[in-house]
Design goal:
The protein is an all-alpha fold. The chain is built from 7 helices and no strands. The protein starts with 5 loop residues before the first helix and ends with a helix.
Amino acid sequence: MTLAVLPNAITVVRILLVLPTAWLLWQTRYVEALVLMAIAGASDAVDGWLARRLGAVSHLGAALDPVADKLLVAVLFVVFAVQGHLPLWLVLVVLGRDLFIMSGAAAYRLLFGRIEFAPTLISKANTAVQISVLLMMLFHLCGFGVLSIWMGALLDPWCFYLLAVLAVASGADYGLTWSLRAIRESR
C-alpha cells in the first residue's frame, strides 16, 4: 500500500468502527463505546492531517470523510433514541437535516454536475454540537460519578435545544445557498 491511500484507509476503518460502536451501545457497554468513539475521533483528525501532509487529498477522501462522520453520528443518535436517552423529536430534527441536505446535494448533482464538499461555519458548529451532545451522553451513561451527573444536567434540555436550533439553521443555510447556486447555474 502506498502512503497516498493511507488517509482513505483510515477513513474506511472509521466507517467499519460504526457497527461495533453501535453494538456496544446496544449492549449498554458505554465505556467501551466511548473508547471506540475516541478512536474514531482521533482517526478523523489523523486522516485529514495525513492527507494534507502527504499531498494525498482526493475527491474520494473528501466524500468519504463526512460519510464516516455522519454514519457514526446517525447510528449513535438512533441507538440513544431507541434506548430512551435522547428525545425522538431531536433525533428527527438531526437526521431530517442530513436527509434534506443529502437530497438537495443529489438533486444538484443530477441537474448541474459536480458538487464540491465544503462545510459552512454554521454546519461545522452543528457538527461540533452533535458530537458534543453524543460525548456528553456517553459520559453521562458511563457512571463516572460527579462528571456523569454534571453531563446529564447540562444535556437536558439546553444542549438539546441548542442542537435543534443549529440543525435547523444549518439546514436552512445549505438549502438557501444551494438554491441560489442552482438558480445561477440554470441561467
